[in-house]
Amino acid sequence: MRRTRLLELALVVAIVTPHAARASSFAAAAGVESFQAIGGSGSRAVLGLGAADFGSADALAQAVRYEDAIVGAGWSFTAGGSARLAGPLRARVRATRTLGDSGFRAWQWRAGPEWRFGERATLGAFYERDAAGDSAHTQGVVSEGLLALTPKLTARAAASWATGDASSRMARASLGGIWRAAPHLALVADAGWLSTQGTSQTTFPIDGSGGGLPILGGASRTPGTASRTSVTQSSAPTLLLGARVIFP
What's the confidence (pLDDT) of residue 101? Predict the structure, then answer.
């Protein structure tokens, strides 16, 4: 059984893998993540995930325990995968269910094309829609890329733009890297810029993936859900730091 370099690197950032050259590949990871955003708000996460790559298709499952500065603590569960369409082009989908300890509930869906260029690079462009109750909805676009610079160092870049209600907007760009510090340890760091306008029910991100969109909009009217929101109209730097232990 052979794992590609990007299979392992993709696992540490919760992005599923390029195809293995021969047999199917399986791997798992556990890690921690901290994200700091505008005004000192942020989120922390402990996560576990597993991925399987069968060449023409792959799959990912992830569980995250998070603490968010706005909605508090909770769990998120993600499942997703991709299928090869033609040449380097694949179709990828992902769904995340968020369950807050204080009643916050949300769904996040993502779908779009992804291109894999051998074992060195991936590039994806996705539409994402998030929903928390009846009044907090977010939709936008997310672009992510990975480029293996050396056997131990991979660069990654991401950009996203989203809208919530009539007055809520968000734009973010980041650039960072993944360093294979030891055979089973990878360290992740991203620096970026985040601009928000209006209200937000969550900081960015809360799913432990290093990507995705915050949930924009007013307080949810759904019974039993959290009603706390953060009103912002600011632009400031962001920093994401993480570590992953990879198995086998």
Answer: 94
